[in-house]
Amino acid sequence: MRRVLVALKCMAIVAAVLAIPACGGDNLTAASPPKVIIDSDYNTLSDDGQLGVMAAQLQAQGSLKVLGITVVSGNQWLKQGVADALKSVERLGVEKQIGVYAGANYALSHDFATIQAELAQFPGGDGYLGAWSTPEPTSDSDLIAPPDGFATHTQVQSKSAVDFIVDSVKQYPGEVTILAIGPLTNIALATRQHPEIVPLIKQIIYMGGAVDVPGNTTPSAEFNWWFDPEAAKAVLHLPVKQVVVPLDVTNTVKMDKTLYDRVAHDPTKQTIITQLFKILNGYGFDGKNGFETNPNYTTNIWDTLTLAYLMHPSFATQTVDEWVDVDTSFGANDGKAMGYTSSPPAGLQKMTIVKRFDNPSFFNFYVDLLTRPVPVTLSN
């Protein structure tokens, strides 16, 4: 009997080892799971919403602790982003564990008049303006419901996003990672109003910037940092460990028809998440006006790379360390990220810039988490 017990124990150990992804620096094996705040211009199931799903699944398996979701205007106006985030946590069944906190509705100084003047004088880019493309909602009646409806019982937290960031960092000094996957207004306000939290932040991981490649919203600037350049500049100057996941790498991590089908069309893994994924991301892959007329269609994958990097740093197969700044002057380079390999301007912080990713490993990570059963069953 003793031999049988020993054998069973050995088999369990082997099984556990085999279950761990073969990646160095794996946070999935950490004794205490990483604590994160997701600071996001949230949406139902584009890149921000996908990251929310993936984070909830990681929390369900005990590999991550999501302290909360702080919402900021960017992809859409704050009120719409909050509504989408509330439905997201309710849909996933994590509304009691992961609160949603409303943050900044406007950029610190980048107003629409400035944007219009710049675009008139310096045209180009993809034309994506996020929230500025639609009228600002003034009441709940102006909001657009997700395909499966608004949240029915989940309410936004009474504490503001800024206060939540400050209180969380103070509660867990040296432990909180901020996944900054939208404009940086909330983080800029939190650190400006309470500078004492700056040395207590563990790290900030951004999806933002275009360091050595063209921008997207404009020929020189990536959308998240373009939306609020003053906030981006303020946060990048903080003496905090920082990792940038810019367009330099996201331009090389693309969803094609095969990857899309792994999420949307696996008949054994159909959930409300995969259904919404198909509805909201299938325009280039399904239907007579999509894949059938453009078999080479691809789209970049953005925000979810930050979560992947947090959990599997070795997914980043090429990185460089540079000082990074953002141009805040009126003109063609407003919002442009600038990397310095030497002799940086005063006040900049050296940080890690991700240049290339292990795409096959990331795709497996991405598909697995997006196709797990929902609602999730949380262990904490």
From TrEMBL:
<dbReference type="GO" id="GO:0006152">
    <property type="term" value="P:purine nucleoside catabolic process"/>
</dbReference>
<dbReference type="InterPro" id="IPR001910">
    <property type="entry name" value="Inosine/uridine_hydrolase_dom"/>
</dbReference>
<protein>
    <submittedName>
        <fullName>Pyrimidine-specific ribonucleoside hydrolase RihB</fullName>
        <ecNumber>3.2.2.8</ecNumber>
    </submittedName>
</protein>
<dbReference type="GO" id="GO:0005829">
    <property type="term" value="C:cytosol"/>
</dbReference>
<keyword id="KW-0378">Hydrolase</keyword>
<feature type="domain" description="Inosine/uridine-preferring nucleoside hydrolase">
    <location>
        <begin position="36"/>
        <end position="363"/>
    </location>
</feature>
<keyword id="KW-0326">Glycosidase</keyword>
<dbReference type="InterPro" id="IPR036452">
    <property type="entry name" value="Ribo_hydro-like"/>
</dbReference>
<keyword id="KW-0732">Signal</keyword>
<dbReference type="GO" id="GO:0050263">
    <property type="term" value="F:ribosylpyrimidine nucleosidase activity"/>
</dbReference>
<dbReference type="InterPro" id="IPR023186">
    <property type="entry name" value="IUNH"/>
</dbReference>
<dbReference type="GO" id="GO:0008477">
    <property type="term" value="F:purine nucleosidase activity"/>
</dbReference>
<feature type="signal peptide">
    <location>
        <begin position="1"/>
        <end position="19"/>
    </location>
</feature>
<dbReference type="Pfam" id="PF01156">
    <property type="entry name" value="IU_nuc_hydro"/>
</dbReference>
